[in-house]
Amino acid sequence: MNLPENKPPCSTPVNQLQMKLWLYTNYDCNLRCTYCVAESSPQTPRRRLPLETVQQLIDEALALGFEAIFFTGGEPMLLEDIYTMLDYSARRVNTVLLTNGMLLRGKRLERLSAVNHDQLAVQVSLDGSQPAYHDPYRGAGTWTKTVEGIHNLQASGFRVRLSTTETPANTEHIAELCAFHLALGIPEADHLIRPLARRGFSKEGLEIGKNTLAPEITVNQDGVYWHPLSTGADMLVSENIFPLSEAICQVLVELEAAQQASPEQRETFQ
Fold this sequence. Notes:
Blueprint: E1 20-24, H1 51-63, E2 68-72, H2 82-90, E3 94-99, H3 106-113, E4 120-125, H4 131-138, H5 142-155, E5 159-166, H6 174-183, E6 191-195, E7 218-220, E8 223-225, E9 236-238, H7 244-261
Parallel strand pairs: 1-2, 1-7, 2-3, 3-4, 4-5, 5-6
Antiparallel strand pairs: 7-8, 8-9
Helix pairs in contact: 1-2
């Protein structure tokens, strides 16, 4: 990663970072999942990232050598300008939209279909091969609408990835889910499984923090954070979003100090 000429290079090798940038576009959501690390719901304040900020972040990230941009929330599909954000990103770099898939129909799907497809993947949250393994944490009736959204995306020519949170409701049925997504034509390489994290609404799962997670640069309207699994105060790196290079240097400084104090392997979540 090459830093701008007017900035000093970071003392720690940047190859310790995964070169992907996570953007919390908003925090409101059409669902209230009981394990949501972002505490998103229909009542959650939006806390939206402005379009101009997103575009500048993408430009700076590319200049710094980032290889992928991830749009997350909340539910990004609630935003009127999400299509412009995605198009700006997907024309320049590999781009992933994280969504619960339930809004992907009608006008929203039509507008999303107009976005450049070549470098855009849509990652849908699906926790089971049937409602009994998905709905307990996400809400009654959500599985059916999510699977409908997956079918709609595939029919529109999108590359669909799946993300699964392993819970007590589905842990004995992951193999069934894998068979289900293979039958949909979604390969194993496009299926990500992560454990529960005890953050946000979740009262169970792994304890996570800067000391346990490999950093993945994450931005919301309030600043730059260590990892997308939490934008809590303890995960804040810098309240200044720009220039992005300064926050990256701060991450590397903190990472070097933490590794000297505790060299244990850190978790990498998808």
